[in-house]
Amino acid sequence: MRFEFSTATRIIFGPGTVREAVSAAASLGNRALIVTGGTPGRLDSFFRELNVQNIECTSFSISGEPTIDAVLEGVRIAKDVRCKLVIGCGGGSALDGAKAIAALSTNPGSPLEYLEIVGSGKPLTQPAAPCICIPTTAGTGCEVTRNAVLVSPEHHVKVSLRSNRLLPLMAVVDPELAYSLPPDITAATGMDALTQLIEPFVCNRANPLTDALCRDGIRRVARWLQQAVTQGTNFEARENMALASLFGGLALTNAGLGAVHGFAAPMGGMFPIPHGIACACLLPFVMDANLKALGQRSGDSDALARYEEIARIVTQSPDAKAKAGVDWIHMLRTKLSIPHLSTFGITEKDLTAIAAQADRSSSIKGNPVKLTQEELTSILRSALRGQ
Q1: pLDDT tens figures, 312-368
Q2: N or C: which end of the chain has fewer CB within 10 A?
Q3: Which helix (H) or strand (E) holds 263?
Q4: pLDDT digits 0-9 by tens, 43-55
Q5: Distance of alpha carbon 315 from alpha carbon 237, whole angstroms
Q6: In a 10 Å sphere around its CB, with 0-12 CB exposed, 13-18 middle and 19+ buried, how is residue 121 labelled?
């Protein structure tokens, strides 16, 4: 057995830890580009403390998915004001944007030279600018991942900038920052976290370290996600979901993902569907298809036992079979009122194109079984109908 484990240089977790990012930032330089999401107000006190430390802050907002052009604009601003560090504060879009800006501000050339799928996929050769990531949602785990997902509107797809050089210098996870997160975003990001725990657990590159993180994280989501949605200021629920999200980020970075994320990338590039909702809609159908394909073609696969273990964790039943886990996720999606795929304009005529792009994605390479184009299209058709 051989595996590697990579993560941020330093991870700080706990209530009030956002304040610790101030002294860390002060040690890195006196000019910072602050990359935020659409609602940066929850970090006002943090910004004030940066100013007290005589750190000159320039704000840059990424309110939706980070596009290649948005990242280029952030790089331009960072260079114009001679920023010494980049701080990402917000959801996955802000954090991925911050990591991409930090990397591309020190590596020459066009982003297309380094992007997967639509670009040349060249390696980043220069260290990124120091980057601190502070998540305000619990789902993406972007604060500890070595990739940044960007939208290429020209190609109608989401693609990754991927390198160990994208790993942040520091990840600061303060569960209290999620108190004001609306229920629908809490639900969607929570389902993203669950997907990013299940897929690395059953994928073909799982290892003992990621297994431990996934088992613990799945248990936390099953116990606490619904409470985080209905009781937004319940600290125990927010803390457990923040941990689950962190564990998912660590797991996917070091093991991989699967077909859910293989679908989600092209789907998010073609339609205005939030990533967490795409994952929630697809997850049970991908699990069901994987179980059938594994049973038909790889009956001795360890993934079959792992799906049964997932079912036992989420149902809290020691005798649960794998199908019970699929049913439980269907039930959870319904309870959380996750919108259907059709809400975002996806129709039957789009399924073949989505399936074809999914089959070329990097994420699907980690799926525990190779799915045919017919199987991929069938998953999408079932997810579109919601049954």
Answers
A1: 999 999 999 999 999 999 999 999 999 999 999 999 999 999 999 999 999 999 999
A2: N
A3: helix 259-270
A4: 788 888 998 999 9
A5: 18
A6: middle
Question: Could you tell me the two tokens for 364?
Answer: 């699907």
Place of tokens 């290429």: 152
Cα first-last separation, the chain = 40
Which residues is 36 bridged to in the sheet? 61, 89
The helix-helix angle for 259-270 and 373-385 (nearest 10°) equals 70
The pTM of this model reads 0.96
Structure tokens at 238: 């927010």
Cα distance between residue 90 and residue 27, in whole Å: 22
Alpha-carbon gap, residue 197 to 189, rounded angstroms: 13
Q: For residue 52, how many other CB atoms are within 10 A of its CB? A: 10
Strands 157-162 vs 147-152: parallel, antiparallel or unpaired: antiparallel
Distance between CA 94 and CA 138 in Å, rounded?
13
Q: What are the residues whose beta carbons fall under 8 Å from the beta carbon of 60, sequence distance 6 or more?
A: 33, 34, 35, 36, 73, 74, 77, 97, 101
- Alpha-carbon span 150 to 269, nearest angstrom: 9
Q: pLDDT tens digit string along 133-145? A: 999 999 999 999 9
Give me the pLDDT at residue 26, please.
Answer: 92
Length of the chain: 387
Does residue 133 contact residue 171 with C-beta atoms inside 8 Å? yes
Pairwise CA distance, residues 31 & 41, whole Å: 20
Q: Which residue has the tokens 């199908």?
A: 323
